[in-house]
Amino acid sequence: MSLPYYLGSPQWQDPKWNSQLPPGPAPLTRYSRALNCVEGNTTFYATPSQEQCRQWRALVSDDFRFVFKFPRQVTHDRLLSGVGQTVTDFLAILSPLQDVLGPFLLQLPAAFGPAHLNNLWHFLEGLPAPLRCAVEVRHPAFFQKGEAERQLNRGLRERNTARVCLDSRALFSAAADSDIVVDAQRKKPRVPVHLLPVDAPPMVRYIGHPDLESNRAFLAPWVERVGQWLEQGRSPYIFMHMPDNGDALSLAALWSELLHERVPGLPELQLTTELPQMGLF
């Protein structure tokens, strides 16, 4: 998919997508022919083998990007303290993907507060070039516009590191009238939307309303913001989530339609409604 920015979802396969994605030899290939990046949530829970990484690399084009999460042991269990060897080993395993790595998603838990900021600075400064991170925080103090948030933002600016913008407003505007919505609202953080201007590529993670059309109003400000970024020559990462991520491709298509109206030269996301032709054996 030829785009001047990166558009993706939190996974590259779902049974609901079989009738929407272009044909291809593997789920990742099919996904990469429609979207040009993906959140690598799998690495938060388990580290793949180096051979698996080689296989992934063979399935995507040179302009595709993986945005992996660091393992839970690094971010949540150790709060970035004393994790040097773990990170070194992790990056070595991912080395076959080095040329298609986007910024890592450094997703920090609510337990990671102002007292841990030095851990973050040491971690970011210890990453080997050219690897970068985009940092997502969840501690309430980092959203109160006080000294803690000023310290966070100042440190990220000094290191030219993007602060991930998680927008869950659409999700929490939905009635909790199904198990899927209840589960999503339980798991996703409800935090204010705070943007931090830096030169690094911006990253937005949007969690949608379960009713697809209800997302239009919530997406509108992002359409304008991303349109401005593109006019400035920036290449943001935009990830589309839904309570049921089987609906994430439909949300990505809606987003693409809206952004195309704002920036007419952009190609729209092309999804199919026909089942791919299967072999006889």
UniProtKB/TrEMBL annotation:
Record InterPro entries: DUF72 (IPR002763), UPF0759_sf (IPR036520)
PANTHER family given in the database record: UNCHARACTERIZED PROTEIN YECE, UPF0759 PROTEIN YECE
Stated name of the protein: DUF72 domain-containing protein
Pfam families: DUF72
Superkingdom of the source species: Bacteria
Source organism per UniProt: Marinobacter xestospongiae
Organism lineage: Bacteria, Pseudomonadati, Pseudomonadota, Gammaproteobacteria, Pseudomonadales
